[in-house]
Amino acid sequence: MEETISLQELLQTMRKRISLILSITFIAVLMSGVVSYFFLTPVYQASTQLLVNQSKKDQTAVNYNDVQTNLQLINTYNVIIKSPAILELVIKDLNLNMTAAQLTQKITVQNEKDSQVVNLSVQDTSAAKAAKIANETANVFKDQIAKIMSVDNVSILAKADVTENPKPIKPRPLLNVAIALVVGLMAGVGLAFLLEYFDTTVKNEQEIEKLLGLPVLGVIAKMDESQLKQSKGKHAERNVRVRGESIGS
User: Fold this and answer.
1) Could you give the CA distance from residue 128 to residue 77 in angstroms, rounded to a whole number?
2) Which of 77, 78, 197, 202 has its CA 20 to 30 A from that of 188?
């Protein structure tokens, strides 16, 4: 016969282990907040935009074929921007203490579908440094692409700048705390049900009736130490009274 658990039993289990669930949740939230605010290094992001357009000649109208060619070249440009041929020059110009592979990890290049605008973003622990790297990478790429592919169809649309009070993009403490809250609740509830599953002790008459399927005829009350002493005292007093009555008779 399969054992089914009702919603009421689930709620009773959670109510019985509520202190454990709340404790685990509080610890998870506290640890997440402390780590996010005091241990994780803020990371800032600076972005610049490149426009891949038609060659700068004496053309007054935009040619559809040129636009399509530029769109097809953008994927190639995205790869070239993060290539050692570009990044080595950026490192040299800015005197950066890192390799091209390390600098690649800081740079993200992407563009919207069917858009000739390329977004070049750089992440660093310094907002000013991120902006310098983004602008220098855009300038070096603009100069070098003419030599690499013999084209002149890249221009800088917008430069990266640093605001007065830059805000880091990560860590995001509130998001981390919210995630920790959910994870803590899930872990607490899971542990509560796990402990309940392995707890095979019988605690009250209701559990006995459920386990054996038989009614409970009587219950032995539990007595604390003071009640036990009081009971012994009454018992001794009764014995003395009985002995006194027997002697008097």
Assistant:
1) 25
2) 202
